[in-house]
From TrEMBL:
Protein name: ABC transporter ATP-binding protein
Similarity field: Belongs to the ABC transporter superfamily.
Domain of life according to the entry: Bacteria
UniProt keyword terms in alphabetical order: ATP-binding, Nucleotide-binding, Transport
Part of the full-length chain shown: 1 to 231 of 297
């Protein structure tokens, strides 16, 4: 089946002085996929996210969102959780989302929707400070889902969580994918990508080692060695 491409990278390169952080990287993110960008520290994941969010300029290459040249309006179609949002500890979950929705200039109408998706609806009136680590991260994802983005961008979404929180976030990401939200997530954890993602691009020192369906890419023993040895 032909899938619409949510994101396409074509020979994207980025240099910081003498450091070649990305070397002619090309891959496609199909609609409806949970797409892992997998690589050890320093492999270029953050640089890649910075480029596709238009925070960094590539030295060469191009990328397209939804088949379109990058432009400011596309930003509304992309939800991001690249750094932890500032939530008020003594305000409830719903109050925090109302504040952020107002800051983003987005309506309140889908606050109920995002709290239900992240299974926080029952706790919507509880103070943020009473939340577990996993619940705090689920609220951050709820916040990123405000405005019904077509794609959600996550940077190491389980970093710093306890085992219960890690399990909650992995399940939430899988569910988002099953419900049709495309997710792009950077991770340095091979087992996380295996458990959560449908597709993967493996980066090693700025080179794209492989990209495609998780089953196919990680079934390739050589590839698994490359990633396992470096993750
Ligand atoms: P991490 O998970 O540690 O952030 P990463 O896979 O996201 O790693 P990048 O942060 O993109 O990798 O870094 C890729 C390479 O570029 C590394 O060698 C890093 O030291 C270098 N680098 C990143 N940002 C800069 C910068 N602003 N100036 C100089 N070098 C940089």
């Amino acid at each position: 089946m032909e899938h619409k491409q949510i994101l396409s990278l074509h020979k994207v390169s980025k240099r910081y002085g003498p450091i070649q952080a990305l070397k002619s990287v090309s891959f496609n993110v199909p609609e409806g996929s949970v797409f892992g960008v997998l690589g050890p520290n320093g492999s270029g994941k953050t640089t890649l996210l910075g480029i596709i969010m238009d925070v960094l300029k590539p030295n060469a290459g191009t990328y397209k969102w939804f088949g379109l040249e990058p432009h400011a309006d596309l930003r509304k179609r992309i939800g991001t959780l690249l750094e932890t949002p500032n939530f008020y500890h003594y305000y409830s979950a719903v109050r925090n989302l109302q504040i952020n929705a107002a800051i983003k200039g987005r309506g309140h109408d889908d606050i109920e929707r995002v709290l239900k998706i992240t299974e926080l609806w029952e706790r919507k009136d509880s103070k943020f400070s009473t939340f577990s680590l996993g619940m705090k991260q689920r609220l951050a994802i709820a916040n990123a889902l405000l405005g019904r983005p077509e794609v959600l961008l996550l940077d190491e979404p389980t970093n710093g969580l306890d085992p219960a929180g890690i399990a909650e976030i992995r399940e939430l990401i899988r569910n988002l994918g099953q419900e049709g939200t495309t997710v792009i997530m950077a991770s340095h954890l091979l087992d996380e990508v295996e458990k959560v993602c449908t597709h993967v691009a493996i980066l090693k020192k700025g080179d794209l080692v492989a990209a495609g369906h998780v089953d196919e890419v990680l079934a390739n023993e050589d590839m698994l060695e490359v990633s396992a040895a470096n993750l």
